[in-house]
Automatic annotation (TrEMBL):
Lineage, broadest ranks: Bacteria, Pseudomonadati, Pseudomonadota, Betaproteobacteria, Nitrosomonadales
Superkingdom classification of source: Bacteria
PANTHER family reported in the protein's UniProt record: DNA INTERNALIZATION/COMPETENCE PROTEIN COMEC/REC2 (PTHR30619), RECOMBINATION PROTEIN 2 (PTHR30619:SF1)
Protein name, entry field: DNA internalization-related competence protein ComEC/Rec2
């Protein structure tokens, strides 16, 4: 397994006036079975910086959606560069910001990317194997018996 910190650049700390979100850590985890990109709370300006400075390093099988799927992140160009097959939106149930934004989710769905949301799916388990990457929702694979749909309900 290989870990690489893609962002922020050291010299960004010398720049006054940058938002904290610009300096979110962007971590890429790679293994023989696939790769994961964790971009923290970056927004469009940091995505643009990554596209300029690290575009060849961005492709990943799984992407944790930047900034929880806010309208200030997940630009078309960034999604196109990462080319994930799976995206996970880490969001709280009924969060006050309304993340992920529907138009952002749509950007992923329009590309055929499977999406998961922690507020709806619970824990998302991602398995990186030589045969490929797979994901599963905890709530889907282990429903509580009192919430499971009965055959009569259909």
């Amino acid at each position: 397994m290989y870990f690489e910190m893609l962002h922020p650049a050291w010299d960004s700390y010398a720049e006054d006036g940058l938002k904290d979100n610009f300096r979110s850590c962007v971590l890429k985890v790679s293994s023989p079975g696939g790769s994961l990109l964790i971009p923290g709370d970056i927004e469009a300006d940091a995505e643009a910086s990554l596209l300029t400075d690290r575009s060849l390093d961005l492709h990943a099988d799984v992407l944790v959606a930047p900034h929880h799927g806010s309208k200030t992140s997940s630009t078309e160009a960034f999604i196109n560069a990462v080319r994930p097959s799976i995206t996970v939106f880490t969001v709280g149930y009924r969060n006050r910001f309304g993340h992920p934004k529907p138009e952002v989710v749509e950007r992923y769905l329009n590309r055929g990317i499977r999406t998961y949301r922690s507020d709806q799916d619970g824990m998302v388990m991602v398995d990186f194997r030589l045969q490929g990457v797979s994901a599963d929702s905890w709530r889907q694979s282990r429903p509580r018996y009192w919430l499971a749909e009965s055959p009569d309900a259909r």
